[in-house]
């Protein structure tokens, strides 16, 4: 009897593998292969302008990139954009989520309206921002006197971050709203009768219960924000030291045709993102939305 | 500690539904009052209005003589226990119980002392450092109670606090709640849909239906002298038997034979608009195996013979179900009660539940002669549900002069 059972189990496991196989194969083709290939490229001197000089050089490219000031400037810019945008998005997104959660009339319309920025293609939105900030014709640039904000570093970065925040706050709000739905109504009622003010209910009851959802939202957005590209490409094209690491990698790889250095940068971005994800999952115990943090012992 | 007065309190929602209508209720200081009724009767809404979790549409609510309609829950000084317990999952048992005290800005020593004392009363001391996720249902329930009592509030509001416990624990916790309330002497309003809980716990029971109060009184009074069909059917387990009764020439023709009526009922029925059809109600314990009745008792009742359907021996007595011929009693109240009990399946025909002495030799399948007490009969008007046998609040049976 038990033998038959385990045989059943074996068959089931085999079926499981078979069913997973197509997806796994696609994953290997579209992810593992490009990743492996970039790592391979990053270990070579490989500039398409000098194809004859191609050769395996080990980690030399990494040494070159990591001692280069452009790389570190771009890294700093990326970090700045990541930290500022994610922090602002968290606060605004939470506000938006609370509004959407509490809305009683026209709930569907409110939610749809809030999601519009996220539905617009980033590049399209970026072009409209660029137009808005262009001196003379732009409706926003004219509000701030005669300057050309996209030609100065500080104001350019501010505009890039503004565009990022405008676009992704709805996404943050959506993730946080899923977390809000996890807070039982009774818990808030109990806090009310226990004597908590609205702010105390928010900080002492809602936030702790929502913590898993908040961490997931932060993780998603941090990983996303670190790879910022579209807005910079359109708004400043990386001028005035506003390049992000992705921008720099693109410039080296596609524009400069330097496959070795460009791939090295890509791999470094990939590693940074992996470290961020690792930190979130291991240190903060980020779990999927809906899983009960309190159940873990 | 304080009294709670509801003065024509109503709750209507923007879409026009009226959840609670003109509820008048005076709850004395230290009293234990139960709000009971089927789901959707407005009992929880009433409780939430007392707590301040729900706005009052009209009427006035006074706690300790003070109008509190517009006060936030935190300014009403009441504590609430929820069916879901509503424990803060991120806090330990100690932190949960200390939460209201911390918000009240008490100093740490006082908080610790109060929490320790409450924990001792509820036997929670060994659990103080655990999180709610690591507690059993009964323990969580006790923590919820603990969080309510540490504050020594003006009143406790309990919203079906025992409904999530299994049957055995519920009975046990019932005595805990009862003892605790007596010990503390705090005014308590307790909502339940379980009539057994209502009967056993409260000083007074408020029966609600469709947002309105049906009857208020001590449990025994509601049981013995129900004002209407709904109260009669809701209180008691197994519930009262209801039979169709046709008024005919000074007697009632029913499935258990002709039932004579006394002068007072006769006078009522002679009025112009008096119903020609009545509903006769009689509780299971007012039947007895005719063999076991002495002559003196026999004179106060009537007898009939009916086929025995099922016999359930409880040890102390026997529940015997009889099949009766004829139509079943029907009224809006009865259908509502049946729907609430989930008993939309009746098996057809009229049936009768009786509680006979354990000595009875009754067997399933036989025809049995059964006696019933005429002094304990209730007669209801099917259209209004009013109890016609009730005279000045007392029920006196069908034979009363």
TrEMBL record, chain A:
Instruction: Provide the GO biological process annotations.
Output: transmembrane transport
Pfam short name (any one): BPD_transp_1
> Per the annotation, which location comes first and is thus the protein's main one?
membrane
| Cellular component GO terms, alphabetical | plasma membrane
PROSITE patterns membership: ABC_TM1 (PS50928)
Q: Which residues cross the membrane?
A: 15-40, 70-100, 112-132, 257-281
ABC transmembrane type-1 domain location is: 75-280
* Keywords per UniProt: Membrane, Transmembrane, Transmembrane helix, Transport
In terms of CDD domains, this protein maps to:
TM_PBP2 (cd06261)
SUPFAM superfamilies named in the record: MetI-like
Task: Kindly give the membrane topology term recorded for this protein.
Answer: Multi-pass membrane protein
Record's subcellular location: Cell membrane; Membrane
Family designation: Belongs to the binding-protein-dependent transport system permease family.
Name of the protein described by the UniProt record: Carbohydrate ABC transporter membrane protein 1, CUT1 family
TrEMBL record, chain B:
Please name the InterPro entries in this protein's record. Answer: AAA+_ATPase (IPR003593), ABC_transporter-like_ATP-bd (IPR003439), ABC_transporter-like_CS (IPR017871), ABC_transpr_MalK-like (IPR015855), ABC_transpr_MalK/UgpC-like (IPR047641), Mo/tungstate-bd_C_term_dom (IPR008995), NA-bd_OB-fold (IPR012340), OB_MalK-like (IPR040582)
Domain ABC transporter stretches: 4-235
Query: One Pfam family, short name please?
Result: ABC_tran
Any one GO cellular component localisation term in the record: ATP-binding cassette (ABC) transporter complex, substrate-binding subunit-containing
Please give the SUPFAM superfamilies that the UniProt record associates with this protein. MOP-like, P-loop containing nucleoside triphosphate hydrolases
Task: Extract the GO molecular function terms from the UniProt entry.
Answer: ABC-type transporter activity; ATP binding; ATP hydrolysis activity
Q: Would you kindly state one Gene Ontology biological process term found in this protein's UniProt entry?
A: carbohydrate transport
Q: Which regions form coiled coils? A: none
The UniProt keywords, alphabetically, are:
ATP-binding, Cell membrane, Membrane, Nucleotide-binding, Translocase, Transport
NCBIfam families this protein is in? PRK11650.1
**What's the name of the protein?**
Carbohydrate ABC transporter ATP-binding protein, CUT1 family
């Amino acid at each position: 009897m038990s033998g038959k059972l385990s045989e059943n189990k074996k068959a089931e496991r085999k079926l499981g593998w078979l069913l997973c196989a197509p997806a796994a194969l696609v994953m290997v083709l579209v992810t593992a292969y490009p990743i492996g290939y970039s790592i391979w490229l990053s270990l070579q001197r490989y500039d398409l302008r000098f194809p004859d000089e191609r050769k395996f050089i080990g980690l030399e490219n990494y040494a070159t990139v990591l001692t280069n000031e452009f790389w570190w400037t771009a890294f700093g810019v990326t970090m700045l954009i990541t930290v500022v945008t994610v922090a602002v998005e968290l606060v605004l997104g939470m506000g938006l989520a609370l509004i959407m959660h509490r809305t009683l009339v026209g709930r569907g319309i409110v939610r749809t309206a809030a999601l519009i920025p996220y539905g617009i293609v980033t590049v399209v939105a970026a072009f409209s921002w660029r137009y808005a900030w262009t001196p003379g014709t732009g409706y926003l640039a004219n509000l701030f006197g005669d300057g050309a904000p996209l030609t100065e570093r500080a104001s350019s970065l501010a505009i890039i971050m503004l565009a990022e925040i405008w676009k992704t706050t709805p996404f943050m709000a959506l993730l946080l709203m899923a977390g809000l739905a996890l807070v039982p109504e009774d818990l808030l009622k109990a806090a009310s009768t226990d004597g908590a003010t609205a702010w105390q209910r928010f900080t002492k009851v809602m936030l702790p219960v929502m913590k898993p959802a908040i961490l997931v939202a932060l993780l998603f957005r941090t990983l996303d924000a670190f790879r910022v590209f579209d807005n910079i490409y359109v708004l400043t094209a990386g001028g005035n030291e506003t390049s992000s690491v992705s921008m720099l990698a693109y410039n080296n790889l596609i524009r400069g045709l330097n496959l070795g250095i460009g791939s090295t940068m890509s791999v470094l971005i990939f590693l940074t993102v992996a470290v961020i994800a690792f930190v979130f999952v291991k240190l903060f115990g980020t779990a999927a939305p809906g899983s009960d943090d309190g159940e873990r012992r | 500690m304080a009294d709670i007065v509801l003065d024509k309190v109503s709750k209507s929602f923007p879409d026009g539904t009226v959840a609670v209508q003109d509820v008048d209720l005076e709850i004395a200081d230290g009293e234990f009052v139960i709000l009971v009724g089927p789901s959707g009767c407005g009992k929880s809404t009433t409780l939430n209005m007392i707590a301040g979790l729900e706005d009052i549409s009209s009427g006035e609510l006074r706690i300790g003589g003070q109008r509190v309609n517009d006060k936030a829950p935190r300014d009403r000084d009441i504590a609430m226990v929820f069916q879901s317990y509503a424990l803060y999952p991120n806090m330990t048992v100690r932190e949960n119980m200390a939460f209201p005290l911390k918000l009240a800005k008490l100093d740490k020593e006082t908080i610790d002392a109060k929490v320790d004392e409450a924990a001792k009363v509820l036997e929670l001391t060994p659990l103080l450092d655990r999180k709610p996720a690591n507690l059993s249902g009964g323990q969580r329930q006790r923590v919820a109670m603990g969080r309510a009592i540490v504050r020594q509030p003006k009143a406790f509001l309990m919203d079906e606090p025992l409904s999530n416990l299994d049957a055995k624990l519920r009975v046990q916790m019932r005595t805990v709640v009862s003892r605790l309330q007596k010990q503390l002497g705090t005014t308590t309003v307790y909502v339940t849909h379980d009539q057994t809980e209502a009967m056993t716990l409260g000083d007074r029971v408020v029966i609600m239906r469709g947002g309105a109060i049906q009857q208020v009184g001590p449990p025994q009074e509601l049981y013995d002298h129900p004002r209407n069909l709904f109260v009669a059917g809701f209180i008691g387990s197994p519930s009262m038997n209801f039979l169709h009764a046709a008024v005919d020439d000074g007697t009632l023709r029913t499935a258990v034979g002709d039932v004579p009526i006394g002068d007072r009922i006769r006078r009522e029925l002679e009025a112009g608009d008096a119903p020609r059809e009545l509903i006769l109600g009689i509780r299971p314990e007012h039947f007895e195996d005719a063999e076991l009745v002495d002559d003196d008792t026999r004179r106060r009742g009537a007898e009939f013979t009916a086929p025995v359907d099922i016999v359930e021996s409880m040890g102390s007595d026997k529940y015997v179900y009889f099949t009766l011929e004829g139509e079943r009693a029907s009224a809006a109240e009865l259908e509502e009660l049946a729907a609430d009990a989930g008993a939309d399946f009746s098996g057809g025909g009229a049936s009768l539940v009786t509680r006979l002495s354990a000595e009875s030799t009754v067997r399933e399948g036989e025809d049995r002669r059964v006696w019933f007490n005429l002094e304990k009969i209730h007669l209801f008007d099917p259209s209004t549900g009013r109890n016609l046998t009730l005279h000045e609040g007392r029920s006196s049976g069908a034979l009363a002069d």
